[in-house]
Every structure is written in structure tokens, then in C-alpha cells.
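Morning - 2-oxoglutaric acid inputs below, output right after.
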Amino acid sequence: MSRSTANAFVADLTPHPLSDRAGDVMTAVEDPATAPFQASLFASGEAELAEARSTQRVRLDARCWVDHRPDWLRGADDLFVELQHALPWRHGRRNMYDRMVDDPRLTAQVEIDDPRLPDVVGSIVHSLSARYDRRFDKMFCNFYRSGADSVAWHPDRVGRHQIDPLVAIVSLGGPRTFRMRPRGGGKSRSFVLHSGDLLVMGGACQHRWEHSVPKQTRGAPRISLTFRHDAPEPSAPEPSAPEIRAPGPDSH
Ligand SMILES: O=C(O)CCC(=O)C(=O)O
């Protein structure tokens, strides 16, 4: 199918990877079209890890932290374009209140060693695994076609069966706000993720906090590459980074 027929769905009724409910399904999307966006100079060219500014560790509470590393990846906009066309994007539909509702984003699940992935993904995995002393071997990708796409508040499912899992997110394309709030209520915090930024949630984040990417009125398309790992050995140390003052809480 050519790009001119982009966004056509090929029904294949694969079970939904993010849902436990019977009847929730995924359909394949061939080469999703999006509005073009203006690549920045830093984010153009061949993708490679940059020795950029140091990691900023934000303590959310006594047991939860977030590492934000701006400009971690050079060439992130070109990587966005490559992965937009190369990955097996799917569109989820879920049964909610007796009607099928479209997920407001596309997703793609790929093996870390999938031949469609460029070499830089191997470098990302290697660097994360070395820095955080975990074997990051699971990759899940999200495609926000515009500001209208989003993901609602949730903790990650790895938190159900792992103590303090790390979740790493590499952002490609348009900037988006990534929000976090304590489960059960409380002040939220926001991180603006630009193309090439790395954000890692650690400690008990998946047990005590939840996160979202809210809709926004305008927004260039964005892909997030998320990396997870198997349960670590009980003796694995908690990785450290210099701490900075946490950004002020959001008003809502
Ligand atoms: O796209 C993002 O930055 C967040 C992704 C996310 O929350 C998820 O896939 O669980």
C-alpha cells in the first residue's frame, strides 16, 4: 500500500497488548501519515548518542525519582522519520461501556534485535543497560500523530509483577509534556520532553505514581521509544545521579 493511502487499517484482530479485557483488539496501520514538522538542527542527521548535559535527577518522594537528560540523542528528528515508516504501527480499540473506543495513539511492539531497527537503538539499549545496571530487553513504541493524540493517567503494568522497575523513554519529534502525579491524588509534576531527550522513571514510581501525556491544542507528531527490563537480581544497586531541585508542582 502506498503512502497516499496511509491510515488505512488492515484488520487482523490481534489481542490488545495493553489490555486484559477480552474483545480489545489491535489493527495494523500501514505507514501512518502525519503533518510534517520542522526538524531542528541538533535533531537532524544520523542518530547517535550525544555526550550532552548531565542527567538531572528529580526526587518525587522518598522512594521515587525521575532522571531527565535533555539532548541525549542527536539526529532524533531523522530517527523519527525513519521509524515512522519502518515500525509495524497498530491502532488499538477497546471495549468501554459497551462500545468500541479507539486508542488515541498508535503503538508498535518490536524485539530489541528486530532488523527493521537502526543500529542506534542497539546503542541506546547498551547505554541504558550499562548506566542503570539492568538488562533493558523490551521495547514498546508510541506514536502521537498530533496534539490530539494522548495517553491517559496510568502506572506501567511492569509494576504489577516487579519491585521498583525502571522505565526509560526516548522522545523523538515534536515536544510534549509528560506529567506525573501521586496515585490516590496530589500535586502533579510536568517534564517537557524535546526531540532527543531521555526520561527514566525509577524507584517505586510504577507503584506510587502514575503518568500521562495529555492532549494539547497544537502539537507536532511525536514518537516515544520506551524500554523496560526483566526483574533484576535482588542485589542490583540503585543507580545514582546528581540530584537537582524538583520543578515546582503543577497547579492541577
Ligand atoms: O509517550 C510517552 O512518553 C509515555 C508512554 C507511556 O506512558 C506508556 O507507553 O506507558
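Note: The chain has one domain: 49-233.

O.
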